[in-house]
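Hello again,

I reread your note about wanting to compare the complex against the isolated chains. To keep things tidy I'm splitting this into two emails, and this first one only covers the full assembly. Below are the input lines as submitted, including protein chains and any nucleic acid or small-molecule components. They are followed by the predicted structure of everything together. The single-chain runs will come separately.
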Amino acid sequence: MIEDWASGIFTSTGAGLGAGLAQVRQLGATTVHLHAPHRDQRTPENAQRLAQEVAASGIAITVVFVGFEDDDYTTVERVEESVGLVPQHTREERVRQTLEIADFAHALGVAAIGMHLGALPGSPQAAQFLPIVKATRAVCDHCARNNQSFHLETGQETAAELLSFLQAVDRPNLAVNFDPANMILYGAGDPLEAMGLLGPYIRSVHCKDARYDREPGQPWYEDAPLGQGDVDIEAFLRCLHALGYTGALTIEREYSPDQTGDIEAALNLLRDLRGKILGTGS
Ligand code: MG
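Full-complex prediction:
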């Protein structure tokens, strides 16, 4: 049983940019979102070893995140061309990999997978809208057989566009992993307003911050330490509370010279706000 608003850290083992499991243990978080390891590491033996490792550390994996070797986040244009199930030429193979990752997560005992689906076409009339809907249904239906949900990362499109896509896919196990910083980084609208539209779909979150103003030469994707960007973190948590969200608060901090220090500060900030909003001592 995971406590309400359990502390979480976005974590990687072999692939991805999240903190390592050793850092998570050191920092004392009780849950993680785990970036799926590389394909050759996604074996039943590895799933068993990893499940034992995290369980022995008292850590629960709440979501396994799908990523692909050739996802490219260097520019927004490259994201549109390369990320998720949106690019047509890689879609079929990536759906196959996604189903493999869902099964790997199932072997780990994890009831949700998440993904940056890519930059969805804004209009349901766009030629690729329906093929992407069908690919997403295929993932949802496979996940349903594993008793899993499929969480779409927010930010590449506006909340209204994402909502119309969710409604078009029309699967009960399709959900949202709400990342307020992505809304800022991609210029996809105000994060708190987005929560008003997407609220019923939010089943996991990334506690991540970002600034609207970029430094000269700063890559667009660079996030900010939690509480130092333009996401009003207290308002974000109050909004989650109003929605009845009790899931993990998973800190995502990737592009930082002091990843551990930033995550530690974020854990402290969330602990303070959790106490203030929920009235808990922890
Ligand atoms: Mg995120």
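For quick reference: The domain at 7-278 is CATH 3.20.20.150 (TIM Barrel).

B.
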